[in-house]
Each structure stands twice: as structure tokens, then as C-alpha cells.
């Protein structure tokens, strides 16, 4: 089934030889910007979306990075399609994002160890979130079909592993500031997970695999059912996944750890997606997306050193439950399109830490991060007037959004939070094709400009206006130069604002105080601050894109990017033991506080802790150390991205090769009085370099794909002298076979065998101090080792 508009003006190479349907279509469509998707007993031809296919996109497609259909994007677009995911043997979206060079494994992810600083990573509920450029999982906006989802856990990020991979059409990522288009959180960039629009028939699938060193025994079972009819269609996808924990004793580099340490938790999940659309009239369409996910995880770690009796350990069970609904009504009179869309979502992460002495439960901490989100938006886009290069187009929209967080820690805990924040916004974007090929201007094949502006009002916080400018200049059909500049922001999280203030009284000597009277006390403040303002960033990038006609199917993009991130919300005192001794913390220390100030702090605290070892006496307090959240931090990131792709015929088959990489430099200054410190290239932060190369060959339904990924090394500056931690190079190999027409029992079969990390590369060890410390940098390197898996699916 082919839309005539897609193939108009295209030419296909001659087809000679013996091919099945899959191989023949792959050869005919090579380099065309089109792909064939199997449906029941036939195929449907659709546009590709990727760096090499941007030039041939259908004008009715909205690509992430713009809200205008068919508009060119001035930033590099990173794409992972469902076919790519399958060819590379990845089981979940968490596996997919680990292969993206611009993504950092810190933030919210299930493999984060206990020795990772909270600013670099955390694991609550075992969700997986994108963390572009290492700016934080709360600084990357993740969308589902262009809609926001409820935040997960405490980090104001979205759990991509909640979305079943068998329902995903593709993932589009723009690693560039995008608040002018999408609002808060899009500082490092935006990711849009696009679901399959519909399906025809029934497809069942199964995956079985395990790590050869032990643990990570995985099972994934899926069902996709769909139906198309005149004017509409629907898809229902279900996926069950289970994987066992990875124990420290299963890995030779972690075997010296105390018994009972899990390097990666066990996971069990159920995910469901329902997506449907129906044309109500010639120009009116209704669509609906539903998502539900339930995940349970379990991990444990020791509390005692080896040989200590009785042995003490802790267990951490968690359960995550999330759901979302997103209806939309689209009216398309002529070239314009109007859309009224809404979404509602919830995410519940119930967690617990149970401590045991021997087999006896001695203490239990439990709680929930319960997030809710609601939004409604009215949007329109269409042409305005003619320009030399084509029609000028505009997109307009207004909307309302509300987020709520209920953070419960035990029963009636002083640390509980119940807060919400709403916002109202309006945006406009224009795409201006200033010059086109028809003008025959020397050295100007095309010149396109884009402008976007968004105003967002957060009552009680601030109103923020963010612009973005883009320019795409093509001196010839073979070369394009892209440039973008824009401002972005991130609103403070509800936890950062409303986490109750904790006031702790401790001996002043704990903070490095000297020459003080006997019994001198200092107060340490920590927690939220309701006067926090939005974090702000300025980003710009320049891209050279090569797509030479002389080399069919080749595209290369090289980008320089820079982001200056200011007013970061931080706890400014990083070394508590030197708070009273280091002049860098002078702005955070109030010396000789008045009794009235001390009484006000005590009464206003959500929790007052006296750890002096004696009755609290305000007259003995010599200083107040303010380590509560504040807008003070500054980060700067800059570097290079490279993305190359080659798709072309080779003999009777087709080759597909990609080469992608990211070089990153970043630094941070917590307050103006503190020094600037390096982030990139240091432990628990992104390495300077990450890269991935793939090479695939397809012929007659058979696809062989190899991949090599490199994660650079880092420097461990926790010790003196600093120690170099080696990087990891991983090689993967996947063999896939899809059957063509034949008997019912054989038609629609898709088989694959994959070996991930086939050479069994291992993370380099790092220094540890506590029995539950993970003995490697768990933000960058994986404990999975070699993973072997088989995959099978059948369309009925």
C-alpha cells in the first residue's frame, strides 16, 4: 500500500535477481527516504525520519524541534526507529537511551550505586530517564506523542522504561535548548517518543536472554493487536518483562564486596498502550492515547563489614504505578490545522528500606513520591503568505498545566510534602523560507529562517519569556549550514520548594570551628525554599551538514554546541566539615545570630534536631549555616556532536552504516565565592567522549548488524593524587531474519539472535570505603557484561 504523493517524482533502481518481498522492497527503497512496514500479509510504505531523510519528509509531518508541519529544524535531529531498535537487539527503551552518545547514565536510573553523590544520580523506583549532556534528568524534557507525562519519583523526570517498546514507532531527540517551543525543563533538549499510529492483525513476541557471568536473566513477552478501517484505526500493545538481579558475587571485579550487595535490581513490569484515531468528518479527526505501567523492583545491600556477627543488611523493595490519557481533536480546513488536546497523568513510586540484624527486622523506612499532571492546549498551524522560497508558516498555541506532588515519608513524618503548581502559557513560531532553488541565486540554494517565542506564567514563582532563532543556509544541494540560538528555563520542582526546612543543632567543631568557647553550637539548615526562582540557560549551536549527491545515501552532520546554565538550584555547602573554616562559605554563614533569629528558625522548622548531646541552649549557638536550596549555581557545557549515515545498495543487498559521537567539556561553580570545578571527565559525571558505530547488511529478509560503542574514561579526584579510571568499549552483534510470503504458519515470522557486549568488557574498579559502595562508576559503566538473547515474533 503506497500513498501516491510519497512516490511522486521518485525513481527506483532496476531490480534483478531472486528476492523475497522484504529484500526486494529494501533494495527498491534504498536511499529514497522511505521504508516498508509489514502489515498482516502486505506492506505499507511510509517516510523515514532521520538525518539523511529530513530532506524528503512529508509536509504533513511535525518533526521534534518545531511545531510547524514540514518545517526544517536548525538543530541536529537524533532518531531511533522501531526497526533500528529491533536490528540492534535492544529490549527496552532504557536499553535504547544507553546507546545515545549525548545521554549520560546519571540522574534517575536503576543501576545507580549508593556511593554516587545525589547531585549526580539516584535510584528511587528503578525508572530510567534521559539525561542529555549530564545537565540532569530534570533538564531534559521527555514527551509521548508530543504530550507531557507526569513526573516520576523525586527528580522531575519522565520514566521512559514505562513505555512498551513494541508500541514505539520511533524516538526523536533534539539535544538543544527548546523552552521557546515546549516550555520548562527543555534546557539540555527534548525527546519525543512517538507511538505506532495503528496496526493490522495480531503480533505476538518473546525474548529470552541472560548475562553469561550470571544474573540478568530476562524474559519479555508482548502482544500487539490492531485494526484499520475506513477513516480510523487502533492499536493495543501489552508487554511483560522480568529480569533478575545482578549480584556483586557474580562479577570478578566486585567479588571482594560483602555478601548481599546487588549491582542491579530485579525488575518485573506490565505495560499497556492503547492508541486510536477516528475521522469524524472530512476535516475532523479524534485521537486518543492511553498508557499504563506497573513495575516492581527489589535490591539489597550489606550494612556490616565481612565477618561481623550478627550480620546486618537492608532490603529495598519498590513499586511504581503510572497511567496517562491524552485525547486530541484535530480540525484541518484546507492547509491549516487546529487542535484541541489534553492530557492527564499520574505516577506513584512506593519505596521502602527494611533493615535486618540477622533475620530480624529492626527498622523500616517507607514512603511514596506521588505525582499528578494535567494539561490542556489549543494550537493551530498553517501558511500565512508566499515567500520566494515557499509559503511562510506559523504555529500558535495557548495552554494550561498543573502539577501536584504528594511526598510521604512514613506516617505523619515532618518531611511530608503536599503541594501543587500551575502555569499558563502562550507561544508562537514562524518558519520563513526566504530563498529557494527557483530563485537561482548564486551560492544560495536555500535559505530558511525560524523564530519562536513563548511566555509562561508560574503564579508564586515568576513569569518567563523565552525566544529561539534558527537559520538554515544551503549554498548548494550538497551542503547546509545550520545555526540556532535560544533561551531556556526550568521551573523549580515542588520538592525543591516545599521540602520542609530541617534545622539541626550540632557541636560547632563538626563544621571545622576553632577557637570557640567550650560547648559552642552551630545550626545547620537544609531543605526547601519557597522563594526559589526558575533556572535559566542560554544555548547556541552551529551545524555543518553534508549530503553529497555524488555519494548516494550519505549524510554527515558536525555540530558545535554551548550552553550557559545559571541560577541552578543547589545546596551550596559541599563540604559540611569545613563550613566554618573555609572562607568560600562565608556568604552561607551567619555568625553571632540573635536569640530572636534562633527562636524564629526553631519555630519555623519542619523538623528540629538536637544532636549536641545535651539540652539545646540557644545562647551557645555561635553560627547558623544555611545549606537550604537556593539559586546560586552555574554550569557551562560545550562540545562537538557528529552524526554520519550511509544507506546504499551493495550487490544483491543493502548496507546501512552509522557513526555518531559526542565530545563534551563542562564545569560548575556552586556560588560566586567558590572555585570553578570540572565536571565532564571526572568520576560520576559524563566522560569527555562517547561514541557508537553500527554497520548493517540486509538481503532477502536477512539482516546482520554489528555495533561498537565507546564510553571514555574519567578521573577520580576523590583521592590524592587523582586516579585514572579506564573507559569501556562494547561490541554487539545481532542476526535477524524476517520471512516473506508463504504458508500461514511461516508468513510474518521475525527471528533474531543477539550478543550484546560480545567481548565481555568490564568496568574499571574505583576506590570504595563502605561495604555497600558499588566498586565502579555506576553512572557511566554497566555491570551487565556479555548478554546473549533470542527474539521471536509472529504476525497472525
UniProtKB/TrEMBL annotation:
User: Which domain of life does the protein's organism represent?
Assistant: Bacteria
- Where in or outside the cell? Cell outer membrane
GO terms under biological process: iron ion transport
GO cellular component terms given for this protein = cell outer membrane
- Keywords, in A-Z order: Cell outer membrane, Ion transport, Iron, Iron transport, Membrane, Receptor, TonB box, Transmembrane, Transmembrane beta strand, Transport
Gene3D superfamilies tied to this protein: 3.55.50.30, TonB-dependent receptor, beta-barrel domain, TonB-dependent receptor, plug domain
Secretin/TonB short N-terminal domain residues are: 1-48
Per the record, membrane topology reads: Multi-pass membrane protein
* Family the entry assigns: Belongs to the TonB-dependent receptor family.
PANTHER family documented for this protein: PTHR47234, SECRETIN_TONB SHORT N-TERMINAL DOMAIN-CONTAINING PROTEIN
Specify the protein name. Answer: Putative TonB-dependent receptor
Native organism is: Sphingomonas parapaucimobilis NBRC 15100
* Species lineage: Bacteria, Pseudomonadati, Pseudomonadota, Alphaproteobacteria, Sphingomonadales
